[in-house]
Amino acid sequence: MQFNVHHILFNIIPTEFRWKFLLLNQWSDIIGSLEGKVHIKQIHEHVILLSVSHPCWAQELLMMSNMLKRKINKVIGCDTIKEIRFSYKSFVKHELKKKTPLHNNSLSDRQLSLLSSTMTNHETEALNTIQEPELQKILKKFYATCKRKQILSDIPT
Predict the structure, then answer these.
(1) Beta carbons within 8 Å of 24's beta carbon, 6+ residues apart
(2) Residues 21, 116: Cα–Cα separation, whole Å
(3) Looking at the predicted structure, is the pLDDT value of residue 96 above 50?
(4) What kind of fold does domain 17-99 have according to CATH?
C-alpha cells in the first residue's frame, strides 16, 4: 500500500497548524510566475511576512496585497491571514541562513520522546506507515516542534 507523503504529513500535523502546511504546499500556485521573486519568510498568527528579491516587488505586491490575501485565505480554506508584510533581503543570504542549523531551537532526544508520546493513535499509525526510518524521525521531530510551539504559545506571558 502506497501513501502520499503530503497526505501523511497533513494527518500528523496538529489541526491548528494544517493551514500553514496548505499555504506552504500551495505557495507556487498562489504566487504563480513570481515564485522565484517572492518567498514566505515568516508566518505569525494572522500575519505573513514575504521576502522579495527586489524592493520594487514589495511595492507592487503591497498594492496587490488585498487580492493576494483573499487568494491565500481561499486556498487555506479559512479567513486566517489578516495582514501581509514585505521585506527585501538578498536571496543569496537567505539561502545561506536557511541551511544553518538552529541549535537553540533543536530538541533533545528526551524532549522529542516526551512530546512524541502525545501523538494520537491515528497519528502514530500514519507515521508508522512510513518505511524510511530517517524520514520517520524527521517527521516525528517536526510534530514535536509544532507541539512545543503550541505549548509555549498557550503559556500566558
Answers:
(1) 40
(2) 19
(3) no
(4) GMP Synthetase; Chain A, domain 3 (3.30.300)
Q: Which of 80, 85, 145, 81 is nearest to 118 (CA)?
A: 145
Can you tell me the distance from the alpha carbon of 74 to that of 44, in angstroms, rounded to the nearest whole number?
A: 18
pTM score: 0.53
Between CA 13 and CA 25 the distance in angstroms is 13
Compute the distance between CA of residue 77 and CA of residue 53 in angstroms, rounded to an integer. 28
31 vs 28: CA distance, rounded Å: 5
Query: Could you tell me the residue ranges of all domains in the chain?
Result: 17-99, 106-148
Model confidence over 116-154: pLDDT tens digits? 566 777 777 888 888 888 888 888 778 777 777 766 666
Count, residues in the chain: 157
More confident residue, 24 or 123: 24
Taking the C-alpha atoms of residue 38 and residue 28, their distance in angstroms, rounded to an integer, is: 10
